[in-house]
Amino acid sequence: MAQAILLTGQExxxxxxxxxxxxxxxxxxxxxxxxxxxxxxxDISTGLLYTWRRQALSVKDGxxxxxxxxxxxxxxxxxxxxxIVVEFANGIKVRIASGAPCELAAAVMRALK
Length: 113
Known about the structure:
This protein is mainly alpha-helical. It has two domains: 41 residues; 52 residues, no CATH class. It is 38% helix and 9% strand. Strand 1 and strand 2 form a beta hairpin. The protein is rod-shaped and about 90 Å long.
C-alpha cells in the first residue's frame, strides 16, 4: 500500500515584492547593520539576504559618475557660505565652496572620476 504524507502548516517559500526587497536591503546596507539581525527581523534566511546583497552590488544600471558642468562665473573668493555638494553612489560626499575657482572644482571632479 502506498503512503502519502500530508504537510500541514504555512508554506515556507515566500514571495517578496520588489518594494519589500528594497526595504530589507536598505536595512542590511545601513551603516553598522548586522545581516543576521536583519534576517531575523524580517524572518528571512541569511543565505538569501547575502544573495540579494551580492546581486544588488553587481547591478550596473548606468554610469556611477554623472558628469558635472563647471560654469565660469566671476566670484570674489571663498567668502560665500553656499556650497556645492556632490554625493557619489558609494556614499562619499564632496563639498566645494561655490566661490572656489572653476579650475579647482574641475580638478577635484577629474581626480574622483
